[in-house]
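Translate sequence into structure tokens.
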Amino acid sequence: MTHSVVIIGSGFGGIGMAIRLQEAGVRDVVILEKAEGVGGTWRDNTYPGAACDIPSALYSFSFERKTDWTRRFPPQAEILDYLWHCARKYRVLGKVRFGTEVTEARFDEDAALWRISTTNGELEARVLVSACGQLNRPVLPDVEGRDSFAGTSFHSARWDHGTDLRGKRVAVVGTGASAIQFVPEIAEDAAELRLFQRSAPYVIDKPDRVYRPWQRAVMRNLPGLWELNRGYTYAAYEARALGFIKYPKLMAMLENRFKNTLKDGIGDPALRDALIPGYPMGCKRILISSDYYPALARPNVDLITDPIERITPSGVETASRAYDVDVIVYGTGFRSTEFLSPMKIVGRDGRELNEAWRDGAQAHLGITVSGFPNLFLLYGPYTNLGHNSIIYMLESQFRYIIGCVGALRGAGLAWIDVKPDVQDAFTREMRERMRTTVWEAGCQSWYMTADGTVVNNWPGFTFAYRRATRRPDPRHFTARRADRSRSTV
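Result follows.
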């Protein structure tokens, strides 16, 4: 059966896109979800302490504003409940095909269709939207003997809740955004916790707090006050962009917060020295936690900075010694720069997306890819943020994609395809602007490809991105009309 739009993924991007399409009159929408529930990264990451590092005032859709968050920084379960609420309220839950993983999508230029192969059969779409996100494929380190470990091991994004860590010897590999949340939680239960750090992160205090019932009632009943709080929070976080994208010296204020957080949490000078990063602040993701450093100061926690040489059946070995452990938890991140992998995406003239992106992912405005008509990406290359809410970026992309779908329907077009010179010009602009950012100030991060090219982040203000995506420009596309004539949109 041929559908108007097929969306891959049911996180914030997929659910929000389906709702907005439905409101625009596009009702023949199918969402393909490989898991058994909606939520994306907020469904997958259930580790202890999982929470958002963006204030709750900025973490809901503009069309379905949540005013009764329980905390200033919302916990994972509450965010997941919100996404289920949106899917049910706007009647898109029935559009989701759970347990259906896309293996291949191939564009049939003659029929102007995407032919999609899944683990549950095949289907066709006029328009294909990828809402897979950037943080959906966990990475396990390429360490000798990793599979030989005789105990329990798992990635933080696949937390084994059946494993009781009380009284256990636990090794944690990695010190990224997930680890700084779950380490304080499990350190209270573990008999011994060995934290293997490759490079120290910058961690600043987390100004979190519980909202009391009367505060939630005020926000719920006085929408003007809630809007004021949201606007103030947005402006405060947006101002941080200057430090990331143009004036790295402005990071000094955050660096002072880091120094104070480290000093307050760690009394041992040697341990404090081991927790000082060797790269400029902001080059990697800045992490927030008020209990990470105090957890590392506990007597049952050891920070190990020697590189891991191998995993053995009994534990972890470095060049200096072996550590026997019962459980290994990998907090080692995601394959963030591969975007649509491992799906095989084939566009015009049999061109494969992985081949087109062999030198790094490219997409005009992070949304459209030349040679792949009627394919639109949500949270694609150059759309991640270091300073504000990704939901704001997603809503900008929703509007742009709906504009493209509207052009297809309104002008009787079979397909539209962004011009290669337009995409190339955008990529050149991004790479040129990236040179002044802190992300290229001398570190290796998950924002980069293997050759050191930053392809994830938007080097600007979020309101500038919204302006750039306010509507698709007809001059940017070639098209084929339904009568098979070629034209611009």
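Note: The chain has a mean pLDDT of 94.
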